[in-house]
Amino acid sequence: MTSGRYNVSTLAAALFLCAGCSNAPGRPAPNAIPVDPDNVRDFALLYKSNCSGCHGADAKDGAALAIGDPVYLAIVDDDTMRKIVTNGIPGTSMAAFAKSAGGMLTDKQVDIIVRGVRQRYANPSALAGITPPSYKATEAGDAKRGAEVYATFCSSCHGPDGKGGAKASSIVDGSFLALLTDQELRSLVIVGRPDLGAPDWRNNVPGKPMSPQEISDVVAWLASQRRQFPGRPYPAVAQAAGEWR
What we know:
245 residues, mainly alpha, Cytochrome Bc1 Complex, Chain D, domain 2, 11 helices
């Protein structure tokens, strides 16, 4: 009997010790337990997984506009950013990320991204007291005047016809214009791409910032260069024998 009680007590003690052992056989490691994607609250992880592919690892140097640019953050408000992240920009490469619009993020996660970008990259002193042009146009643009504005502020880099120059690439390419709305063009004209060497609206011509009307006019000129069917007409190609038309 004593031996039996001893064995039972020994087994109970061993089980108790194993229960508190982090490397007990069959016990999953802390990093092996899957995390519910809806419960991710870390800004860095959310940004890396959803935004960095287009906007860059540090919110710059990506294929799309640098959303970490303090000038951009000075002209766009949180509500606008939230709507863009939530619903995307239809007809462009900016997809919808919120679950309510077919994406993968909860509304809370969208808020974390918007708040995180603002907290990390906004710089109230970036404009040194200068009032920037409004995010949205407050005046209609005129494409004819825009051609003159382009010649003054843009042609030295993008070439006399917008098809590229020694310092910058084409901005009238059909595929490029097809991927951007007029609002995105306006944002680029105002903010520039300093991460790629393109100045903002103040510095295209030293000492001569673009006026709000000039910005609207050059956007109208750029929009007028859009093709109805980007990429066409295709070059004539000899039809292979037996190929169906």
